[in-house]
């Protein structure tokens, strides 16, 4: 019975410590790291109770912005509504543009699409592999990067060896993805 009582006291102390840690700061305590560049802290308070001084850290949160359960005030303002970390139009356009090549990997949270090797029917002695990386949540011209890898059959040994890719190939695929992404956005009613 004494062990159970000790356990409850320990649990209560831990819960109290977590609560106090999440309460922001101790009144009257001035964190030396929180001073602004002038070294003087403004202690005025605005009408909503927020300090006007040079303290840039968020007050009153437990374990970071939004607390343990997140903030109801923070909305996804990307306009995509997908919950992924990349722009939905660029993602869909990338998949549409390279849909003739089998995929090895498609990671919507990291924004990376990797294809398998593809051998065009018109040139059976070469094969291509494409990697599309979506870099932004916004539909921007620099929001997508394409890397094309090319291999050719080695005339001497018969195996595959790396070959030079025309630098315009990457740009042409990026432009095709951007064009398709704009079409998708217009079709959804965006501008």
CATH topology of the domain at 88-188: Alpha-D-Glucose-1,6-Bisphosphate, Chain A, domain 4
Q: Which structural class fits the helix and strand makeup? A: alpha+beta
Major sheet = 5 strands, antiparallel
What low-confidence regions span 5 or more consecutive residues with pLDDT below 50?
A: 33-58, 74-80
The total beta strand count reads: 5
Count of DSSP helices? 3
Radius of gyration: 28 Å
What is the beta-strand fraction?
15-25%
CATH 2nd-level architecture of the domain at 88-188: 2-Layer Sandwich
CATH class of the domain at 88-188: Alpha Beta
How would you state the average pLDDT, rounded? 75
N- to C-terminal distance: 69 Å
Q: How would you sum up the global shape?
A: elongated
Order of SSEs: HHEEEEEH
Walk me through what this model shows.
- The protein contains 3 helices and 5 strands.
- It has 191 residues and is an alpha+beta fold.
- The protein has a domain at 88-188: Alpha-D-Glucose-1,6-Bisphosphate, Chain A, domain 4 (2-Layer Sandwich), CATH 3.30.530.
- Strands 1-2-3-4-5 form a 5-stranded antiparallel β-sheet, covered by helices on one side.
In short:
The chain is of the alpha+beta class and 191 residues long. Helices cover 27% and strands 17% of the residues. The protein has a domain at 88-188: 2-Layer Sandwich (Alpha-D-Glucose-1,6-Bisphosphate, Chain A, domain 4).
Which features characterize this protein?
27% helix; five-stranded antiparallel β-sheet; 191 residues; alpha+beta; Alpha-D-Glucose-1,6-Bisphosphate, Chain A, domain 4
């Amino acid at each position: 019975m004494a062990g159970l009582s000790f356990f409850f006291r320990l649990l209560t102390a831990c819960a109290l410590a977590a609560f106090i840690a999440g309460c922001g700061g101790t009144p009257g305590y001035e964190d030396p790291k929180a001073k602004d560049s002038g070294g003087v802290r403004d202690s005025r308070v605005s009408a909503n109770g927020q300090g006007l001084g040079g303290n840039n850290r968020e007050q009153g949160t437990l374990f970071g912005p939004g607390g343990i359960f997140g903030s109801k005030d923070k909305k996804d303002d990307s306009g995509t509504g997908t919950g992924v970390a990349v722009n939905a139009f660029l993602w869909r356009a990338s998949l549409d543009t390279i849909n003739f090549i089998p995929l090895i990997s498609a990671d919507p949270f990291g924004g990376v699409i990797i294809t398998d090797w593809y051998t065009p029917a018109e040139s059976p002695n070469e094969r291509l592999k494409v990697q599309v990386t979506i870099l932004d949540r916004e539909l921007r011209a620099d929001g997508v990067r394409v890397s094309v890898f090319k291999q050719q059959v080695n005339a001497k040994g018969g195996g595959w060896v790396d070959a030079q890719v025309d630098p315009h190939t990457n740009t042409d695929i990026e432009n095709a993805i951007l064009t398709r992404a704009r079409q998708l956005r217009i079709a959804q009613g965006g501008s």
